[in-house]
Amino acid sequence: MSQTWLISGPPGCGKTSWILTTIRSHPGSCGYLRLSGLSEDGLEQGHDAGIDLAWLKDQCPQLQDLSKPDQQCADRIDDQLNLIELQQYRPPAHPGVDEIDPRISNQLKALQLQPDRALHFGREPELPEQDTLEFNRLEAWSVSLHDSVWDPNSLSSFWFELVNGAYGDVYRAKALMNLPDGRAFFCNWIVSQQGSQFLPLEVVEPPTGRPNRASELVVQGKALDGMGMQSTINDCLLSDAVLDMHQAPLREQQPDLSQAKR
Amino acid sequence: MAHAVISCLHANLAAVEAVLADIDQQGINTITCLGDLVGYGPQPNEVVELMRQRAIPTCQGCWDEDIIDGLNACECSYPSQLAERRGHLAHQWTDAEMTAENKRFLASLPTSLRRDKLLFVHGSPNSQHEYLLPDMNAFAALERVETAGAETLFCGHTHQPYVRELRGGSIRVRVQHNDSSSSEEQDMTLPMRRIVNAGSVGEPRHGNTQATYVIHDEATNDLTIREVSYDVAKTCQAIIDAGLPEVFAWRLSHGFEYAERADDASHVCER
Q1: For residue A82, which of A4, A101, A182, B188 is within the disulfide window of CB 3.0 to 4.6 Å?
Q2: Which ipTM was obtained for this model?
Q3: If one looks up domain B2-253 in CATH, what number appears?
Q4: CA-to-CA distance for B216 and A219, rounded, in angstroms?
């Protein structure tokens, strides 16, 4: 019997990490969907653009993407656990699936998904709560970094400035960032934590040009300086010529790639 | 007689004024400046003119040199692409802002100053761009002081003030005579030498935002590292008003460098 759970909570509370742990411990197959949350009064939703899905798929390659119609039949596989992630600032008035916001229910119905459980961070004791914060006002800023490759030391400087307040009061930042050697990192920070997480993806792209994977930066906080962030990011990203300079020695070490420059 | 040594002013007028006031208050009349009057900060002309007006003996720093010679340092002196872009932006802004007269003054500065056994340089006796870090190999550090013929070497450039005593240094030399197969070894004990880093007036990087400089009492040979508070917010506002990147103001207000320190601190640019 398949199960579908709706996992909701405010930004940075640990939804994706909890989902990853749950997927890893589930003996059967798993599906995943991240819903566009609902902005509330003064509380803006961050644009995810597939960061969480890309991270989870990298860690669990068999994970089914429930947003794709051709995978919806997987919902009927026995023992499949479908996990639906939703950024939701405030818990529903009462627990249970009947209290799901109708706008969310309608999104799920369109995908033929009917939750069996609805778990909200900060309310359900089985969910960790150390990073579950209450927000009164939150802006969001995001930028697509598709095709972008970072100078590694520049990324380090930018992230340091970002999470230490150079571009506004940042409470939450997450990103998937590509490096010239083909690696990518899931960068994760919440104001309640001392440091940032920099988790390498399992899949390493060949050093033959720009990687073709989801890459995005999402920032939430107050008085965010989007222009400042964009300007610094522009100074951190590698041009084609510099990227090739980084990758050429790596291709030399892998003879089968030396002719494969894109 | 006590004298003061200041370094790395970086066009931060409020910090320079506060440090000079602190020196004056202690009745010290002899001041030596180790360069980097300009770069990153918002008041390059004002700082140069103040140093000229006070007739403070000054040696040329790496930023002063770059403003005169152009940006021809090799790329590897920057730790990241971001630092390089910011450095170039600050260079272009400073270059456009400075008067010809003040540039001529920077061009006229010597690379070192000497007073008896005291040697004053920006980076090291070898180059304005070389960093003498406090944890530099002791033999290499001693070599810098000894070959320059100094007992005490005053430097800046790292923005981290320190006093390092190099004692107990010795060199073993094996002498092979031409007319014989014999050789003899000689141990040469080197006298104590000191490296004194004055830190930075205009761009501190020692853990807080206070400007630093050094006082040396020539009678007692005592050295004191002074920290001076100044109106950081005033300089930050001047950075923004000048149209320099706001992140420079943010970094200064947190005690970070405007850009980032070099990855390979011992690197000397090949020009």
Answers
A1: A4
A2: 0.85
A3: 3.60.21.10
A4: 50
